[in-house]
Give the backbone structure.
Amino acid sequence: MGFPILKLPLLAIHAVISNLQLDEIIDFSLCSSKCKRVIKSIKKQPYKSMEIRIFFGYPDFQFMYEKTKGPCWYFNNLEVEKVLRKSKRGEKRKKYEIRKIGGIKIKVMKCEENSLFSKQINELQLKVIFDFLLDLFNNIPICRYSSTLRVNQLNITPEYFGLKKCSSIFYSFQGMPVPDDELHYLFENIQVSEDITINGEVSDEFQLNTAKFSTNELNIRPATWITRDIFLSLNCSRMCLDYVTLTMNDFQSFVLQWLSSENTSFVWLQMSFTGNHEPIDFSQFQTQQWNPKVRERYYDLSYSIFSRGRKIDCLDGRDIRRKDGKLGTIGYFRRKHYFVVWNQTN
Amino acid sequence: MSVENAPVVDVDEAAIPVEKKMYYRFESNDKKEFRVSELAIQQSETLNRLVEAMGYTSEDVENKPAIAIENIDGKTLKLVFQWCEHHKGEAIPVDDGSVPKIVEIPEFDAKLMDIDNGLLFKLIWAADYLNIVQLLNVSCKKVANMAQGKTPAQLRRVYLLPSDEEDEAAKRAAQEAQDPRAREVEEEFEERKRQGGNSFF
């Protein structure tokens, strides 16, 4: 005898669904339009956000709970093969089953962690699945978009997903430059609230006319394409710009700009130059040497993706004080120039 | 404590407790009577509010008629009160909105819910009506467990889910039952369409 789930009170239906896993929720939603509507009607969504990870040209849709990772829908052949190998070694061998999503047949394999695997997927199928998940989970926020080791398997970009908003962008390319179109879309169309990391070459022709990043953290390596105009318009709390083609005068202008502003969100800037550069001209600032009664010797660069847990030795740094009492330090440590603002001073 | 040894029993099967605890009397819709401790009642927000509002003394409980619970039968109510007695004094879970929701089914509850789907269905309705949060959680978890490893086709059978076509047919049937003329009008309309007529009226 079956169990007439849809005849339960709505609160109970929602309680049942909140105990279902990703693969079960998806399969339940595919049973009928009514089932899908029931899932969409849940106020407290089972997942907080979704991450799009592109690895070797194939994406994975990683669901996230409050702070931990949830199940995932894998499309990456490497991941699929890993699971297949595991299942061959004694566990019950998994089979691919057909699911019809948006009128398109898709091969799906379930695994122990309630994740899903699909292989040999094409661009159209992928878009159908992405749109289906977005719809099913009521426009679940995209917390992170990451793309690493780009290989042109599928031509997938943030634009392909119509991404307009996300918390974090992470690019780490090797062997080929990040395509210009993709960077343009990324910087001009996506509102990124937390951090942007572009770790990879860009083409020599790449340039942005205007860009006003207001993300919390910005990591660009190499940052050869960052012009003076862009640099001075950056509105980020933490910035790590490596191999800039800027001049020391630009760095000084940035510090002067902070000095004459009321900006309270800026925390630190760390940058390295390409080639030789002139030394910093301290005559533009009223500076003081380190006084242990005023501030600590070491500055904690915590939070940053690249420098988590690292500290800067500010022994030789020169301190400058703004009108409102905020204390900043300009210095050079391990081949990088830095300008940091202290949170606590005496 | 096993399900069998749980203190909730039909009134004619159990001795009246000797402790000086307050025991309330409830009656199901099929006239079965139960004595339930004050502490066990606290698991049900609905019943707890009800007895608080009534303000019964021990004498009232004995002298006044049992409190009627009109939409739950004796078999279901017995399970509900057995559950409440077993979990009396336990904190009532508060939904803080965090995910994932982790619900474990204790051994006692698993045994209590080793029942047919019809009774489980009634138990969930009762837990919802009486607002017994944790009983609702564990019973719904049991229903969720039925989905493990199932395909959509199997889920349709497990959860008796009609397909879109069946839903549509049921909707049409319900409409026709409401208005018998509707079918005639629809048939006439279809017939005219087949004959190539442009206007219906």
